[in-house]
Amino acid sequence: MRAYYYDNLPGDQRLPHDYIPSRPASDETLNSIDVKYWQIPVEGYEPKIDAVAKERHYKNRDTINVSKAGMGDIYEDKIKTFFEEHMHEDEEIRYILDGSGFFDVRETPSDAWIRLAVEPGDLLVIPAGIYHRFTLDEKNYIKALRLFQDEPKWIPHNRSEKTDANPYRLTYLQAIGVGA
Ligand SMILES: [Fe+2]
Protein backbone atom coordinates (compact mmCIF):
# COMPACT_ATOMS: atom_id res chain seq x y z
CA MET A 1 0.00 0.00 0.00
CA ARG A 2 1.29 3.43 -0.89
CA ALA A 3 0.13 6.42 1.18
CA TYR A 4 0.49 10.00 -0.05
CA TYR A 5 -1.18 13.39 0.18
CA TYR A 6 -3.92 13.97 -2.38
CA ASP A 7 -3.25 16.89 -4.70
CA ASN A 8 -6.82 18.32 -4.61
CA LEU A 9 -6.68 19.14 -8.32
CA PRO A 10 -9.82 18.80 -10.39
CA GLY A 11 -10.08 15.78 -12.65
CA ASP A 12 -11.33 12.22 -12.59
CA GLN A 13 -11.32 10.75 -9.08
CA ARG A 14 -9.75 7.58 -10.53
CA LEU A 15 -6.52 9.37 -11.49
CA PRO A 16 -3.66 9.05 -8.97
CA HIS A 17 -3.91 12.69 -7.75
CA ASP A 18 -0.33 12.49 -6.57
CA TYR A 19 1.62 15.74 -6.16
CA ILE A 20 4.67 16.17 -8.39
CA PRO A 21 6.93 15.39 -6.66
CA SER A 22 4.87 13.04 -4.52
CA ARG A 23 4.27 13.90 -0.85
CA PRO A 24 4.32 10.58 0.94
CA ALA A 25 2.41 10.07 4.20
CA SER A 26 4.57 8.24 6.73
CA ASP A 27 3.64 5.28 8.92
CA GLU A 28 3.77 7.67 11.89
CA THR A 29 1.19 9.88 10.21
CA LEU A 30 -1.09 6.89 9.56
CA ASN A 31 -0.58 5.84 13.14
CA SER A 32 -1.53 9.29 14.38
CA ILE A 33 -4.93 9.02 12.68
CA ASP A 34 -5.37 5.39 13.76
CA VAL A 35 -5.28 3.86 10.26
CA LYS A 36 -3.78 0.38 10.39
CA TYR A 37 -2.52 -1.88 7.65
CA TRP A 38 -0.74 -5.17 7.16
CA GLN A 39 0.57 -6.97 4.14
CA ILE A 40 -0.43 -10.60 3.78
CA PRO A 41 0.43 -12.29 0.47
CA VAL A 42 -2.72 -13.42 -1.34
CA GLU A 43 -1.24 -16.84 -2.02
CA GLY A 44 -2.14 -18.90 1.04
CA TYR A 45 -3.73 -15.90 2.80
CA GLU A 46 -6.53 -17.77 4.57
CA PRO A 47 -4.83 -18.98 7.77
CA LYS A 48 -3.22 -15.57 8.25
CA ILE A 49 -6.47 -13.69 7.76
CA ASP A 50 -8.16 -16.20 10.09
CA ALA A 51 -5.57 -15.41 12.75
CA VAL A 52 -6.07 -11.63 12.42
CA ALA A 53 -9.84 -12.11 12.43
CA LYS A 54 -9.64 -14.18 15.61
CA GLU A 55 -7.35 -11.72 17.36
CA ARG A 56 -9.57 -8.75 16.48
CA HIS A 57 -12.84 -10.64 17.03
CA TYR A 58 -14.09 -10.46 13.46
CA LYS A 59 -16.51 -13.33 13.23
CA ASN A 60 -17.92 -12.74 9.77
CA ARG A 61 -16.74 -11.88 6.31
CA ASP A 62 -17.95 -11.56 2.77
CA THR A 63 -16.43 -10.78 -0.61
CA ILE A 64 -17.19 -7.77 -2.74
CA ASN A 65 -16.48 -7.46 -6.39
CA VAL A 66 -16.72 -4.04 -8.00
CA SER A 67 -16.03 -3.62 -11.68
CA LYS A 68 -17.13 -1.56 -14.61
CA ALA A 69 -17.54 -4.72 -16.67
CA GLY A 70 -19.74 -6.38 -14.03
CA MET A 71 -21.92 -3.38 -13.13
CA GLY A 72 -22.60 -1.79 -16.49
CA ASP A 73 -24.63 1.42 -16.54
CA ILE A 74 -24.85 1.96 -12.78
CA TYR A 75 -21.07 1.80 -12.34
CA GLU A 76 -20.32 5.50 -12.84
CA ASP A 77 -23.08 6.58 -10.44
CA LYS A 78 -22.03 3.98 -7.90
CA ILE A 79 -18.41 5.10 -7.75
CA LYS A 80 -19.55 8.71 -7.30
CA THR A 81 -21.50 7.56 -4.24
CA PHE A 82 -18.46 5.75 -2.81
CA PHE A 83 -16.51 9.00 -3.25
CA GLU A 84 -18.77 11.10 -1.03
CA GLU A 85 -17.02 11.95 2.20
CA HIS A 86 -18.54 9.95 5.06
CA MET A 87 -17.95 8.13 8.33
CA HIS A 88 -19.23 4.89 9.87
CA GLU A 89 -20.00 3.87 13.41
CA ASP A 90 -17.84 0.79 12.91
CA GLU A 91 -14.41 -0.05 11.56
CA GLU A 92 -14.08 -0.60 7.84
CA ILE A 93 -11.83 -3.61 7.29
CA ARG A 94 -10.78 -4.61 3.82
CA TYR A 95 -8.40 -7.25 2.52
CA ILE A 96 -7.65 -6.78 -1.16
CA LEU A 97 -7.72 -10.01 -3.13
CA ASP A 98 -7.48 -8.68 -6.68
CA GLY A 99 -7.55 -5.39 -8.57
CA SER A 100 -6.80 -2.06 -6.90
CA GLY A 101 -8.33 1.19 -5.69
CA PHE A 102 -7.92 4.28 -3.52
CA PHE A 103 -9.15 4.93 0.01
CA ASP A 104 -8.88 8.61 0.90
CA VAL A 105 -8.78 9.35 4.63
CA ARG A 106 -8.87 12.76 6.29
CA GLU A 107 -5.91 13.75 8.36
CA THR A 108 -7.05 15.57 11.47
CA PRO A 109 -6.62 18.38 12.44
CA SER A 110 -5.09 19.47 9.06
CA ASP A 111 -8.16 18.21 7.13
CA ALA A 112 -5.81 17.14 4.31
CA TRP A 113 -6.71 14.05 2.28
CA ILE A 114 -4.30 11.14 2.46
CA ARG A 115 -4.69 8.70 -0.41
CA LEU A 116 -4.11 5.02 0.30
CA ALA A 117 -3.41 3.12 -2.93
CA VAL A 118 -4.35 -0.47 -2.16
CA GLU A 119 -3.31 -3.60 -4.00
CA PRO A 120 -3.70 -7.36 -3.56
CA GLY A 121 -2.37 -8.44 -0.17
CA ASP A 122 -3.18 -5.19 1.63
CA LEU A 123 -5.25 -5.50 4.79
CA LEU A 124 -6.56 -2.10 5.80
CA VAL A 125 -8.43 -1.07 8.94
CA ILE A 126 -10.11 2.34 8.85
CA PRO A 127 -11.35 3.33 12.33
CA ALA A 128 -14.94 4.17 13.22
CA GLY A 129 -15.54 7.92 13.09
CA ILE A 130 -12.82 8.85 10.57
CA TYR A 131 -13.95 10.79 7.50
CA HIS A 132 -13.08 8.93 4.32
CA ARG A 133 -14.14 8.03 0.78
CA PHE A 134 -13.30 5.35 -1.75
CA THR A 135 -12.79 5.13 -5.47
CA LEU A 136 -11.63 2.60 -7.96
CA ASP A 137 -8.68 3.59 -10.09
CA GLU A 138 -8.41 3.58 -13.87
CA LYS A 139 -8.41 -0.22 -13.97
CA ASN A 140 -12.02 -0.12 -12.76
CA TYR A 141 -11.79 -3.39 -10.86
CA ILE A 142 -11.39 -4.46 -7.25
CA LYS A 143 -12.17 -7.63 -5.32
CA ALA A 144 -11.94 -7.47 -1.55
CA LEU A 145 -12.87 -9.30 1.63
CA ARG A 146 -14.91 -7.36 4.16
CA LEU A 147 -14.41 -8.49 7.73
CA PHE A 148 -16.80 -7.60 10.54
CA GLN A 149 -17.74 -8.50 14.07
CA ASP A 150 -21.49 -9.14 14.12
CA GLU A 151 -23.89 -6.93 12.25
CA PRO A 152 -21.82 -4.35 10.42
CA LYS A 153 -22.80 -0.71 11.00
CA TRP A 154 -21.66 0.34 7.57
CA ILE A 155 -24.30 2.92 6.90
CA PRO A 156 -22.39 5.84 5.41
CA HIS A 157 -23.07 9.09 7.25
CA ASN A 158 -22.09 11.89 4.90
CA ARG A 159 -20.02 14.60 6.53
CA SER A 160 -22.12 17.36 8.05
CA GLU A 161 -22.51 19.33 11.28
CA LYS A 162 -24.45 16.33 12.55
CA THR A 163 -21.59 13.88 11.96
CA ASP A 164 -19.17 16.36 13.55
CA ALA A 165 -21.17 15.79 16.76
CA ASN A 166 -21.69 12.03 16.30
CA PRO A 167 -20.52 10.14 19.44
CA TYR A 168 -18.38 7.77 17.31
CA ARG A 169 -16.72 10.79 15.70
CA LEU A 170 -16.06 12.33 19.10
CA THR A 171 -14.69 9.05 20.46
CA TYR A 172 -12.40 8.84 17.44
CA LEU A 173 -11.13 12.40 17.95
CA GLN A 174 -10.46 11.64 21.59
CA ALA A 175 -8.59 8.45 20.65
CA ILE A 176 -6.24 10.37 18.33
CA GLY A 177 -5.85 13.18 20.87
CA VAL A 178 -7.66 15.89 18.91
CA GLY A 179 -10.59 17.94 20.19
CA ALA A 180 -12.58 17.64 23.39
FE1 LIG B 1 -16.85 3.86 4.12
Automatic annotation (TrEMBL):
Q: Name one Pfam family in it.
A: ARD
Quick one: which pathway? Amino-acid biosynthesis; L-methionine biosynthesis via salvage pathway; L-methionine from S-methyl-5-thio-alpha-D-ribose 1-phosphate: step 5/6
> Where does this one sit in the cell?
Cytoplasm; Nucleus
Q: What class of enzyme is it?
A: oxidoreductase
Which InterPro entries does the record associate with it? ARD, ARD_euk, RmlC-like_jellyroll, RmlC_Cupin_sf
Sites where the protein binds Fe(2+):
86, 88, 92, 132
| Note describing how the cofactor binds | Binds either 1 Fe or Ni cation per monomer. Iron-binding promotes an acireductone dioxygenase reaction producing 2-keto-4-methylthiobutyrate, while nickel-binding promotes an acireductone dioxygenase reaction producing 3-(methylsulfanyl)propanoate.
Catalytic reactions on record: 1,2-dihydroxy-5-(methylsulfanyl)pent-1-en-3-one + O2 = 4-methylsulfanyl-2-oxobutanoate + formate + 2 H(+); 1,2-dihydroxy-5-(methylsulfanyl)pent-1-en-3-one + O2 = 3-(methylsulfanyl)propanoate + CO + formate + 2 H(+)
Which residues are listed for Ni(2+) binding in this entry? 86, 88, 92, 132
Question: Matching CDD domains, A to Z?
Answer: cupin_ARD (cd02232)
GO cellular component terms, alphabetically, are: cytoplasm; nucleus
Enzyme Commission number(s): 1.13.11.54, 1.13.11.53
- What Gene3D superfamilies has UniProt attached to this entry? Jelly Rolls
The main place the protein resides is: cytoplasm
Q: Which UniProt keywords apply?
A: Amino-acid biosynthesis, Cytoplasm, Dioxygenase, Iron, Metal-binding, Methionine biosynthesis, Nickel, Nucleus, Oxidoreductase
GO MF terms here are:
acireductone dioxygenase (Ni2+-requiring) activity; acireductone dioxygenase [iron(II)-requiring] activity; iron ion binding; nickel cation binding
Q: Which domain of life is it from?
A: Eukaryota
Family per UniProt?
Answer: Belongs to the acireductone dioxygenase (ARD) family.
Protein name as catalogued: Acireductone dioxygenase
